[in-house]
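In response to reviewer comment 3 from the previous cycle, which asked for concrete evidence that the modeling workflow produces usable outputs, we include below a single protein chain processed end to end. The sequence was submitted unchanged, and the resulting structure tokens are shown without manual editing.
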Amino acid sequence: MLSDIARAYGNENMYRDVNEDDCMKFEKLLGNMENTSSGFIRKIWSGEQLSLTREQLGEMKKFLFIMMYRGEHRRGQYHNDDFDISTRLSILRHMRHKNIEKIRDVWFDNLKWLIETPTKHIIDEYVGAITGRGVLTPFAMMRDHRAPIHLSELVDFGNMSHSSLCIWQAAEGSEFILSEGCFGAYEGDKGFTFHNFFVVSPRYAIVLVNRLYKSGRMHSMPFRKSWFGDELHAEPETIYRNGPPRDISDVSKFSLDDVFKYRRIVVSKKDVYNVNSILLDARTKYLTYKSSVCMYKSLRYYDKVKDAMFDYKHDYSILRHKLFADMNRTHAS
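The workflow returned the following structure tokens.
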């Protein structure tokens, strides 16, 4: 589907709230968060050394989560009341607690709180929820925990904030595609996420790796193995302002001024095709690519694996034939 860029990406005053004294409060707060992330992304593009302080990393993950949460899929769940029965009962209980009349209004209420609340405060709420009331048990959503936002979103934020950040670089001769879901697409199994992908250009993607999966603590659970190997996970070089901790649990040594230095991890063509296949299977509207050859190869790969690996199994034969014709025409000329 073709779409005007301004219409697709140019929503103005999306977070304007007439109930606030400063009706543009949330637009401004989101803009401040975006500054840190956009500066880091520009460094990825330019080839500069990549580093973030602990405070900046927290703000970066918060921004990525909000970008994912405000996307069409999550917003549509609330607007269309598209939830399983246990989650819906949990939302209705949350609505009574917050005096919210419509399910669709829960989405914006959650979003406003996430934007305006300091990252540390959000993490404190998350830790209190999972340690005090056993949120991660099978019937978590049925528990009467009064969180400032809907409990499942608080847990998702906490899990994502503890993920490990990596930078993936597409191998020579391949590229990442873009879609309306390429900022936050995920790979996982049975509701648990292994990786979140944030494609920032045809060449680069920011990847958040679930620490429980990365550490092997999920391997004993009945999940399939990830489609991406451990060699694509890399811890950053860390400069501790208060000296190195005894181990990762020694948070007393942590400082907001600690510096994390990242490297770009070159991923194979097959791994790029796997990322692209995830985006192709999740796509509902938009699809963007730079190289017709790379796009054609990604479609060929998706066709080979979609029956065994994916749910939607979209038919891209029309686009594939168009790309093949375009490539032959270019080669003939």
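The CA atoms of residues 118 and 161 lie 13 Å apart. We consider this sufficient to address the reviewer's concern, and the full set will be provided in the supplementary archive.
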